[in-house]
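If you are new to this repository, start here. Below is one unmodified record pulled from the training split, so you can see the exact layout before writing a loader.
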Amino acid sequence: MMGGNDTDTAERSSRGAGDRDTRFFGQPWALAHIFSVEMWERFSFYGMQGILLIYMYYSVAEGGLGIDKVTATGIVGAYGGTVYLSTILGAWIADRVLGSERVLFYSAFVIMLGHIALAVLPSTAGLGVGLVLVAVGSGGLKANATSVVGTLYAPGDVRRDAGFSLYYLGINLGAFLGPIVTGFLQSSYGFHWGFGAAAVGMAVGLTQYSFGRKQLPASSRIVPDPLPRSRYPLMIGLAVAALVLVIALTLFGVIRPDNLSGVVILVTLVAAVAYFIVILSSPHITPKDRSRVLGFLPLFLVNVGFWSLYQQQFTVLTIYSDERLDRTIGGWTMPVSWVNSINPIFVIILSGVFAALWTKLGTRQPSTPVKFSLGTIIMGVAFLLFLPWANGAPNSTPLLAIVGILLVFTIAELFISPPGLSVTTRLAPERFHTQMVALYFLSIALGTSIAGWLAQFYDPKNEVPYFTILGFIAIAIGVALLAAVKPVLHLMRGVR
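And here is the target side for that same chain:
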């Protein structure tokens, strides 16, 4: 329910205008504003994440915190998982209180405060406050930016996947530039200069978005299922109780830095199961909607497997780049974080190719389950490509080898991520539109947390079992979905 005839008319009008608009590379002009804020948000996010792990495990003399590597990788995985887990909160506030566009705007401000905390607050205090603020803000922005992009297209608009690919290009422009800038500042002036650059980047994005947000369609500001005012005190009370519970569990040692990734995995599993139950049991969705949500379940599970490997760019691959990779070029040593900019370069180059390919193929392009299958199989192959250099000496892996492996990472990503965002908005029941996007991000939360948890099993002295087992598991998951494409498409009821 959208809240009355006037609202319905406004939504149809705004979507209709967007359908005809082709001023932004063949896409609606409003996409440019979301493209911009997401680009700068990714600049700050990946810029900070590029130096986060080494900040934690580098010694105090090197400007770090001196945390052991197993704990540090677990924290990175838990933090990454919490970012995507926080999409639940952002989606709920959008659907019940503020609408997607407003949550997007306020979340960008919270992210900026988080980066400022990392830059100016000392030691673990700055780490804790900064990561919590960035995680909560990023969660609110992620689900709602994607949802707002979805409002720009009518059902059946063949430009949708191409539009999401273009949006994904903005994400990766920021992801490319962020680690370059923060890595240079970190290696030249110190970690807090790098965190400060992330804060400045988010401030630029927030300022730019402030001027363009009014041009977004009216449908982006609609609250689909408004929370009755009488229930506000109950919701505030529950939020305070949840905060007190987390603080108490931390003080009593139940939640610790060394088990954070496990805690986030458990919480994410519970949240995902609860979300599926709530949506599937809702009396407000049709049998067709219910079937589509069931069709989303296999994609959810495969997505978990994919991201549990892909997100090791920020755990295992960071350690690998620091200790095992030959980063010397003509006597100059490349900063560790710059490795995180290789994947975005390929995405920038190839996203346009994939967008053009899907547009040209139109209705003849592979279905989303097939894309997910191929992406997961290719991701497994990428892990197997580490094997020729496994168990090597320090700094023995050539830079070109990692470049080639990350190219395969990118191809796998482009088969899954933009189509995943797109298919979620198409499968979502109207009442649960933004929350289905949050459910999609829960699969990434689970995969990201698992990536942090898996890192404890990585042993540079015996890498063959690690890369072999994970690679073949991913390939097996992809093959299983490929074998089940027909029944999954049947459940998806006309959505491909």
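Two things worth knowing about this chain: The mean pLDDT is 81. The longest helix spans residues 160-189.
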